[in-house]
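Illustration: SusD-like starch-binding protein associating with outer membrane.
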Amino acid sequence: MKHLKFPSLLYKVCRMGTCCLALSLVTACSDWFDVSPKTDLKAEELFSTEAGFESSLTGIYLMMTDQGAYGGNMSFGMLDQLAQQYDYIPDGANDRMAIYNYATATTDGFRTKQKLAQLWLKLYNIIANCNNLLKWLDNKGEAVIRNANTRNAYRAEALAARAYCQFDLLRAWGPWKYGTDATAAAANCIPYRKVADNSKQPLLPAKEIVALALKDLNEAKQLLANEKKLRLDDSERRFRFNYHAVNALMARIYCYAGDATNAVACAKEVVDNCGLSLASSNQDDPVLFSECLCALNLYHLSQSLSSHWADGDKYTSQYFIRSERFNSYFEVSGDRREDMRTKSAAFYEHASTKTALSRKYNTNPKEAIPLIRLPEMYYILCEMTPDLNQAAQYLNMVRNKRGYSRSLNVNFANEASRITALDREFRKEFYAEGQYWFFLKRHGMTTLAYDNTVTLSKERYEFPLPDAEKEYGWTASHDAQNGANTTHNNP
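Result:
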């Protein structure tokens, strides 16, 4: 398989029609599989060739780059606005707190309710495409795709993409403080869709979503076993869900679930075998693609995202941060900047307006949107390792590479100091990547160290179900008929 980046092919993928891959983005899940008589290619025809299967898979990755998904709201956009990483306030909003209005649809300002509804729909459309590809692999894969490794890779990537999106839906709509709140695991939150149809699916307990995602990933890992020795340092497989990326996602989920043994095992396997190393420079690579275990490619990224990330004399719609907040957020003291994440290679800074703007989506030659990067594995090892001294060593490995001298190494006196140190590093490392909001939610943090004007709560962390899901998808009567505590093995 090749990394498909050329626009002519991507446009062709976009035009292949509702029934075969890039399903129409509609307002109700009941419409996901409507078949138009004007479809360019019938599904039967598309999946009669290996190129058709490849195009279907490419379509899934393409859908993930949509600005309503990982090309915006699920990366640097809405999630990082919720974590108050920017000072940008859209027209129509009076202050940054307006973003927490989940109940009312607004025509200006943050439009959070509409964005949440769009995000839910986008991710479940991606999942529907994964399920459709898996269905056709079951039906025709062996007859059409003669190479077993290729066939296994297609299935593994579809399973991994499904698990990635389902887990993010859980992190977004699921309970806060998962792993520390005894009631969180049993809380019904989202469906886990494994069928390629428009049937209504029940809301499952959070722990079942975790188990189902891990089941998908374990299967994907086995299917990609031939990639165990793959080195990602010079591999196009970084733009796909490869073996090491699957392992890293498993480490992320095990960490979320508080399963230290498996989280450490998966993270260590990634660190030891992926072929990537922590970078000591971000010159010409502020997004640190050199550390990406898995990333999406967005064609013409800088142009596509210019409204948010283009530098200029003044910022109007860009996700800028004011110098005062920047200094607090990144722990900058005067002219002393050991951390490469705060230097000119990482940010545009304007002394006259006292503002800064990340270069991650402007100086980005690989046109990459990170999904998982190597430093997260060190943070997982830090958080999940019982011995506090060893745990601190993992965190300091990243800090030293980022520019901090060993004389500034951190130590943990107790569990609270470990989480405080992780909080500081997590927010600096994953600025404008969409991961920090989930860290805050998982640890139930109600105040922000860099902004004492913001108060977070369970109500702000747990998104309400979109209206369309209540109307067209899950219904309370559905769960009532099946029993509130029923285990759903085939959602």
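Reading the tokens back as a structure: Residues 112-144 form the longest helix (33 residues).
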